[in-house]
Amino acid sequence: MALGIAAALLGVSAFSTPAAAASDVGITLYGSRAAGWGLTNTTVTSPGPPLTIHVGDNVTLNLTSLDTLAHRWFIDYNGNNVSNGAEPTSPNFGTALLWNFTVSNVTGTFHYRSDRTAGPGDDLATMWGNITILAAQTTPPPLLGGENTVLIVVGVIVIIVAVIAFAAFFWRRMGKPGTPPPPPQ
To answer: Do 129 and 71 sit in the same domain of this protein?
Structure first.
């Protein structure tokens, strides 16, 4: 029984998947109603550059408006071209904005957009790009040196003690003389 419990504890600790390792991701985007989005002020295009992030990432957007018009960056999960409550949406910015959000548990490829329409033109026509949200990144747990070290060491000790006790029990049993065989006739 002790051997079974030790094996179960060791198995669970050795093969458990750790929580997602969130990353801090910095993205700089320059936007213009006439040209779209770019990673620099000279690479602005429509569509904008493709972006890739993971569920759980803490994203810091450094947003700059090249045309000084008011913009509002968001991820359009449902494709309706409007920022909804569950979609990450920055505050309005007319020059520059540093804004953080944590990526929710939504995976797939979506459009990121600006949805401001005040003034000349419309952000929706040019200010968009693709953003891919991947499942949370995981790393395999270290066998020793991580959170599982104490559990693994205790499990190994329990297994060794159980094996020694089992061997001693059978060794003593085999060492006792039993009923001698009947004499040959």
So the answer is: yes
Residue 162 counted as domain residue: yes
How far is the C-alpha of 130 from the C-alpha of 115, rounded, in Å?
Answer: 15
Is there a cis peptide before residue 91, judged by omega within 30 degrees of 0? no
The domain in which residue 155 lies consists of 2-16+142-174
How many CB atoms are closer than 10 A to CB 10? 19
Q: How would you label 141-172 residue by residue, b for 16+ Cβ within 10 Å and e otherwise?
A: eeeeeeebeeebeebeebbeebeeeeeeeeee
What mean pLDDT comes out for the span 62-79?
93
- 114-158 per-position pLDDT tens digit: 987 665 667 888 999 999 999 987 665 555 556 666 767 777 888
Tell whether 54 is covered by a domain. yes
Split into its structural domains, the chain has a count of 2
Compute the CA torsion angle 80, 84, 20, 8 (nearest 10 deg): -90
